[in-house]
Design a protein that fits this description.
Length: 224
């Protein structure tokens, strides 16, 4: 297949997983884009030259990208045979100018993509910090019931045991969320762990009739 620039950009931006990552090299037939599966699509969109020939519109793998025989380039070479030295020099100068302009545009796009990626990273970091802080609040909330033995005993052994079990889970998850804040292991948020914290807190409120008060004097908001 051949793609115009607008078409390959649309493929990357709007059909990244469903189509782009499944493209095969037009030269050798091997997977051409699978290597970008762990890269964000908006970053890949700024790397067109790495996998797309702007002369013929083909998608190519790393091995073939700069080695494939592009018939449009061959046609251009044939036309160049009939040019005078002056015409050829002018054409080369224009091509060099266009190349430099394209390179500057590519660098600007790469800088913009890097800046966008950094903004996304900082947003995720802030969200991880919020989740870790709230999880720690839930852990501390449950810890007080494990220490207040008289009040906990008065609630009965079933409630006591359930609160203790929830505290153990909350402590483990709070540590996990904090570690994800300090040293992320994935670009995604730990949604499953966070949902578990919310479930634990909701159940603890049902059992105790109490809730966490924040430093601002408001009930803890578990929405994220």
């Amino acid at each position: 297949r051949r793609f115009a620039k607008a078409d390959i950009e649309d493929l990357v931006n709007n059909q990244f997983k469903s189509a782009f990552l499944k493209e095969r090299c037009a030269e050798c037939g091997k997977p051409a884009t699978k290597r970008y599966s762990k890269t964000m699509s908006f970053v890949v969109a700024q790397m067109l030259d790495a996998y797309w020939c702007n002369e013929c519109g083909r998608v190519l793998c790393d091995a073939c990208r700069y080695q494939h025989r592009c018939e449009r380039l061959d046609q251009q070479k044939e036309r160049n045979k009939h040019l005078t030295k002056e015409q050829l020099a002018a054409q080369l100068a224009e091509a060099e100018s266009l190349k430099n302009a394209a390179e500057e545009e590519r660098k600007a796009s790469a800088r913009a993509a890097a800046a966008a990626a950094e903004r996304e990273r900082l947003i995720r970091k802030d969200k991880r910090a919020v989740l870790a802080k709230k999880a720690k609040s839930v852990e501390d909330f449950l810890q007080q019931f494990t220490r207040d033995t008289d009040a906990t005993q008065a609630r009965g052994p079933r409630v006591r045991d359930e609160l203790l079990e929830m505290y153990t889970r909350a402590k483990r998850i709070a540590l996990t969320l904090y570690n994800e804040y300090e040293h992320p292991t994935t670009t995604d948020l730990a949604e499953e762990d966070w949902q578990a914290v919310k479930d634990i807190y909701e159940r603890a409120r049902e059992l105790t009739g109490m809730f966490v008060m924040t430093e601002e004097g408001r009930p803890l908001d578990m929405r994220n």
